[in-house]
Design brief:
- The protein has strands spanning about 15, 20-25, 25-35, 40-45, 50-60, 65-80, 85-95.
- The chain is an all-beta fold.
- Strands 1, 2, 3, 4, 5, 6 and 7 form a 7-stranded mixed β-sheet that branches.
- It has a domain at about 35-95: Immunoglobulin-like, CATH 2.60.40.790.
- The chain contains no helices and 7 strands.
């Protein structure tokens, strides 16, 4: 009989979150819905002068992953997370 301390090893299903990309001229704004996720559980992969953004967020019940291809080079400008919505503002370098 187990002690109840054994970890349950389960694979979380990867969910593609609802994401909106808004072109605001010199900037791109990306809104990604990540319900039930805490801000410290979000990883954003964007290198300067990149043309793609990868967002990964994981908690004990779910895993979100979204790769966004951007039509021009961008660099990180601002991040905001509120009420389960991640908002990224990216400055366009070239288009």
């Amino acid at each position: 009989m187990g002690t109840g301390n054994a970890k349950i090893n389960k694979t979380l299903k990867i969910i593609e979150p609802v994401t909106t990309v808004i072109d605001e001229g010199k900037f791109l704004r990306i809104l990604t819905e990540l319900p039930g996720i805490e801000e410290q559980k979000i990883k954003i992969d964007l290198e300067n002068s990149s043309t793609s953004v990868t967002i990964v967020a994981v908690n004990t019940a779910k895993q979100f992953k979204k790769v966004i291809t951007i039509p021009c080079e961008v660099r990180f400008s601002k991040k905001r997370f509120s009420d389960g919505v991640l908002e990224l503002t990216l400055e366009k370098n070239t288009c």
